[in-house]
Specification:
By secondary structure, the chain is of the alpha/beta class. The protein has one domain: Aldolase class I (TIM Barrel), CATH 3.20.20. Helices cover 45% and strands 11% of the residues. It has an eight-stranded parallel barrel with strand order 1-2-3-4-5-6-7-8, surrounded by six helices. Helix 1 packs across helix 2 and helix 2 runs parallel beside helix 3. The longest helix is centred in the last third of the chain and has 19 residues.
Length: 299
């Protein structure tokens, strides 16, 4: 397969572990980052939606990014840099992330997608304050969040924006971005259309189940890029099962699965309203046992 570059491939999302009092459990975080990096994804994505980035303070976001770099064993780390409300504060946080050694920045679309010209000016102006590569993120927490293909194509042509985490969840809209990606990378967040999007020309994945099953995504990516399309299709079936297993109660469900898979300090609770009852926990346990018995997980 061709048309892949250093910004394509698997971006594994990083969860944020908390102590009982909801302070960050940095010790477990470091262990978890190392566990994720051991699967050898092309990138790690710290300070993302699955990290509960909107629930973290600016100081916590920067520290998490730095610890991710420290424990990544050389896997490049990207982190969201434009969450602050004030533009100058965004620039300041970007600089702090750079000082932590991140390899790239992520810009969320900031609820600007109904004003494409304004968004283009905002993104290019913000990008002028960093030399790091940038990946765009259609973050559903700030709506309207879906970038139109024309604007994405224009941003890709600047050479500053290396890809986009596409969250449209519609194959026609995914194809529309692929048609204008040029040398950039449409990175897919939708699991049902993951295989289809690869076939259509998507160049990677940034999806919630990578937070607890990165090994499957690396396997599928390797199979697809080596031309073993049938093997990739079958691995996608296993990824669908994983996605369904953790969909209810994410990201608490993913944290519990991570604890079952070996990061024992990872507690399942969040700073949000997630609550996993005994039946939900048991469901994840049954899935995990099945995945091990079938050789899907090699824990």
């Amino acid at each position: 397969m061709s048309n892949f570059n250093e910004f394509s491939g698997v971006y594994s999302l990083l969860l944020t572990p908390f102590n009982w009092d909801r302070t960050l459990d940095y010790k477990t975080y470091e262990e978890y980052v190392a566990w994720q990096a051991a699967f050898k994804p092309q990138h790690l994505f710290a300070v993302c939606g699955s990290s509960e980035m909107m629930e973290l303070t600016p100081e916590e976001r920067v520290k998490c990014a730095g610890l991710a770099v420290k424990n990544s064993d050389g896997v490049p780390v990207f982190a969201t840099g434009n969450l602050a409300v004030d533009f100058n504060d965004q620039i300041e946080e970007m600089k702090k992330l750079e000082q932590q050694g991140v390899s790239g920045l992520v810009f969320v679309t900031k609820g600007m997608c109904d004003k494409p010209d304004y968004m283009y000016e905002y993104m290019t102006e913000l990008a002028s304050h960093t030399e790091l590569p940038i990946v765009l993120y259609e973050f559903p927490g700030l709506r309207p969040h879906l970038m139109d293909p024309v604007t994405y194509g224009k941003l890709a042509k600047t050479g500053k924006f290396m890809g986009i985490k596409d969250t449209t969840c519609k194959l026609t809209d995914i194809e529309a971005k692929i048609a204008v990606q040029g040398d950039s990378n449409v990175l897919q967040a939708n699991i049902p259309f993951l295989f289809d999007s690869y076939v259509k020309g998507a160049r990677g994945v940034v999806a919630t189940p990578t937070s607890c099953g990165a090994d499957l995504f690396v396997k599928m990516w390797d199979e697809f890029t080596k031309g073993d399309i049938e093997a990739a299709r079958k691995t996608h079936q296993h990824i669908i099962a994983l996605d369904n297993a953790i969909d209810s109660g994410f990201c608490a469900s993913a944290k519990y699965l991570v604890s079952l898979r070996g990061v024992k300090g990872m507690k399942w609770f969040t700073r949000g309203a997630h609550d996993l009852g005994p039946a939900r926990l048991r469901s994840i346990e049954v899935f995990y046992d099945w995945a091990k018995e079938e050789g899907i997980f090699n824990d």
